Amino acid sequence: MNLIQILKALSDENRIRILNLLKYGDLCVCELEILLSMSQSNVSRHLNKLTNAKIVNHYKVAKYVYYKLNEDTIKEYPFINEILSHNTFKLEPYNKDYKKLKRYKDSGVSCDDLKCGKLYFK
Questions:
Q1: What span, in angstroms and rounded, lies between the C-alpha atoms of 55 and 15?
Q2: Could you tell me if 10 and 88 are in contact, meaning their C-beta atoms sit under 8 angstroms apart?
Q3: Ordered structural domains, the chain, with CATH
Q4: In degrees rounded to 5, what are phi and psi of residue 27?
Q5: pLDDT at 45 exceeding the cut of 90
Q6: Is the pLDDT of residue 53 over 90?
Q7: Exposed/middle/buried for 99, CB within 10 Å: 0-12, 13-18, 19+?
Q8: C-beta of residue 55 within 8 angstroms of C-beta of residue 6
Q9: pTM, two decimal places
C-alpha cells in the first residue's frame, strides 16, 4: 500500500470521524449517515477513499454494506491506531460522535428502522 495514499485518506476530518466510529465495530452506510449527520453520497465518497487506501474493508449483508477497519493495514501502519486510540478521544467532535454511537447501539434500532426514518439521533 502506498503510504502517501494512506496519509491523504487520513487528511480529512470526516474520514477520521468515520474511522473513530469504526474502531468500535462494523457499521453500515446508513448508520454512519445518521451518526455523522452526513448525506449518503458524502459518506460513500469518504468510505471509497478509505477503501481505496485499504484502511477499511466492506462486506454485504442482505441489502446493506458494512464497513470495518482493515486490521492488516492497521498492523502495517501502527500510527493509524495511535491516532485512533490515543488522539481522537481528546477532541470534542469525536467524543460527541462516540456518545451518539453508544445511544444508537443501546437503542436496539436496526438499519431498516433508520431507512424508514423511525429514529434520528442528535
A1: 10
A2: no
A3: 3-109 (1.10.10.10)
A4: -140, 150
A5: yes
A6: yes
A7: exposed
A8: yes
A9: 0.90
